[in-house]
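Inputs:
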Amino acid sequence: MNFSSKLLEQAVLAFSQLPGVGKKSALRYALHLMDQPKEMTEQFTADIGAFRSLLQKCTTCGHLSDTTHCDICVDHRRDRQVICVVESIRDVLAIEATNQYFGVYHVLGGIISPIDGISPEDLSIDLLIERIEKSTVAEVILAIRPTIEGDTTSYYIAKRLEKFDQLKFSIISRGVSFGGELEFTDEITLGRSIQGRLPYDPNVMINT
Amino acid sequence: MNFSSKLLEQAVLAFSQLPGVGKKSALRYALHLMDQPKEMTEQFTADIGAFRSLLQKCTTCGHLSDTTHCDICVDHRRDRQVICVVESIRDVLAIEATNQYFGVYHVLGGIISPIDGISPEDLSIDLLIERIEKSTVAEVILAIRPTIEGDTTSYYIAKRLEKFDQLKFSIISRGVSFGGELEFTDEITLGRSIQGRLPYDPNVMINT
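Outputs:
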């Protein structure tokens, strides 16, 4: 595409570095900013600049934070005896959005994946062990994606934490999605879902 | 959505001001920047800031430009006797992408639309008249969208330019899209396409 303007071309290239943004969308974003007052773009770049330069990672759990400790870790209403171990910050936000979890988190920063060159040392597992040594933790929820790499990571963490006798381990339940049709569910999920079947009491609503 | 971080929330709000960007995509963009080195975000905000603060509009045609005159207006290979009148900068970019036009442009900055409160005075029509008075113009192409407002704008401009005897007017052809099926073409387009039928010579390729 010929933009007949270096400045426009630079802006389009900048926007198209964002995930899932092509040249056409990038151009649309740039022209939209041109249609708005200059102040809007100044605010836009200031907000994004401040976000990237000032945002930190919580030194306890690894979640995003405006200060050295994140809102979740300092919240006294959260149950610090339960730690939910997740792969990424995105997973924390996803679980928080459910409003169903009231413990704290531990962000690994990835999962063990020899193909991508990610070994256990690259993840914050030592930090997790330190946390458990220092405080009273009753349960560790391994909320890691149900893939071979994810299952390997869960297994590895459970093995490393075996020495803590008081610890209870759990994993998030796996099965057919809410609203999902059996016909279109893959065999592995459906198979696990039958193996992991739950007792049914017609008087108790499931998963609510 | 609860972000547990003011900085993240601000960045998400900033991104979601862009057209067609929802909260989920905005969050994805922000977290992507967090995964990259800080320098990438610094470059990103610098490029977009420079684009908005330095980019000008060509004082002749109204197209985007890094200087007071755009690349198209100063290009001596372009035919200045043919002016293509368009609604917006987006239209200039769309026509340029076809590589089929070698004249110059005039960007109106909108079309006449009483409902949206846009009257002829809001468009750069006086500037167009000035341009034609000052230089030798042989043809004005009215490349304005084929809607009631667009047709009104074309009609208004043609009327205002009537006094220039030497001027030839043309509009872009209208009809069935290349690859389009007659069955799925709306009645107005198909009707215009039959009214505006072209002589056919099997030895000459159409529109190439």
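Remarks. DSSP finds eight helices and six strands in chain B. Chain B has two domains: 6-54, 77-207.
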